[in-house]
Amino acid sequence: TTGDIGSTGARIRGRKWRMIHPPTHLHYFTAKNLARLLHRVGLQPASTTYPAVKRTLGSMLFGVFSLRLGAHGVYSVLSRLPGQNISISLNLHDIMFIVARKPA
C-alpha cells in the first residue's frame, strides 16, 4: 500500500495532503507511474484497489477539530458526547493497494 498522489484529494490539497509527511514518505506515486515502475523491474500489476480504513468517531473529531482547525475547546466539548468509540469505515480513495506478480 502507498498513497496515490494522483487521487482527487491529493490534487486538491496539494502540499497539505495528509500523506505528505517527510521523512516517512520520500517518494510519491500515482497508480500509473507505479505500474510503470513495476513493469521496469519485471513485475506485472495484477490488481489495484483502494481499501477503506477504519477510524473511530472520536479520532476523526480530534483530527478535524483539534489538529486541523486548532479548535481545541470545540473538540473538548464534542469528546464528551457518547459514541466516541463508534468505528467508521472511511475511503478517500487516496491510498492504493497494488498486487503485482512475476510473469510466467
Can you walk me through this structure?
- 34% of the residues lie in helices and 22% in strands.
- It has four helices and five strands; from the N terminus they run E-H-H-E-E-H-H-E-E.
- The chain has helices at residues 8-13, 31-40, 57-68, 72-78, and strands spanning 2-3, 44-49, 53-56, 87-90, 95-101.
- The strands form two sheets. A three-stranded antiparallel β-sheet has the order 1-5-2, covered by helices on one side. Strands 3-4 form a two-stranded antiparallel sheet.
Give the topology, please.
Layout: E1 2-3, H1 8-13, H2 31-40, E2 44-49, E3 53-56, H3 57-68, H4 72-78, E4 87-90, E5 95-101
Antiparallel strand pairs: 1-5, 2-5, 3-4
Helix pairs in contact: 3-4
Give the assembly state of these chains: single chain
Instruction: Please give the number of β-strands.
Output: 5
**Span from first to last CA?**
24 Å
- Which residues form runs of ≥5 with pLDDT under 50? none
Alpha-beta content class = alpha+beta
**Cα Rg:** 18 Å
Estimate the helix proportion, in percent: 25-40%
Q: How can the largest sheet be summarized? A: 3 strands, antiparallel
Strand content: 15-25%
* Biggest β-sheet: strands ordered side by side in the sheet: 1-5-2
Shape: elongated
The H/E string reads: EHHEEHHEE
Mean pLDDT: 93
Number of helices: 4
